[in-house]
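Cont'd.
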Amino acid sequence: MRIATWNVNSLNARLARVEEWIAYARPDVLCLQETKQADAAFPHGAFAALGYESAHHGDGRWNGVAIISKVGLENVTTGLGSADDAEGTRVIGADCGGVRVLSVYVPNGRALDDEHYPAKLAWLARLRTVLEETSSPDRPLAVCGDFNVAPDDRDVWDPSEFTGMTHVSAPEREALANLEEWGLVDVFRRLYPDDRLFSWWDYRGGSFHRHRGMRIDLILVTEVVAQQTTYALIDRQARKGEKPSDHTPVFIDVAVD
DNA sequence: ATGGTGGCCCGGCCA
């Protein structure tokens, strides 16, 4: 089973690229973030035409997350409870082909001295609490999405350029490590410990062509899924060409019994 | 160089 995640930076602007990507990558499950759509505008029909069920959680202009699946889409949940109310539409979950899948869009945080930064840390702590309350490290689970945190210095083009910035600060990395401590594995990093590959590049300044990016789009899985994962890829092709998102898709292949 | 690019939707916010 191929499980993918992609921050599309507006699904309305990106639908043709997403359809193109689905056609050649053929994911079984695709988690989307930053659809920037209201539920009523989500193009369920376009995905149905490709053989996928879909569920969306969005209220319009900002955020918005979805799960698209051709291996089942059941027990859909949205949000993180009350803590999510102030943070917008950033989580949707569903059971897909025997795996619990979450599509998450972690708050950006903006700057270390901005009020959104402690809110980001609180959001990540809340995510761990929700995992504790609703799941178990022994169950098949994949938490997929834009975490807006580069797990360590291998995941940024030049750590010295990030001094005093978000996405690399120790508290953010600790919050991410705390999720892993609960029982999640950054399976791309486990498979490829030495690769310095990125999933996001700023639109500005030719960052993509200069290899100035970050790996902030992650697929965190419980050990039972990690043990069955045979392959992982960050697909740079999708960052090229006409009207790309600033993020590119990441996927894993899981051997299903 | 305190910029720059792109998406929301048309002035300014957000990433």
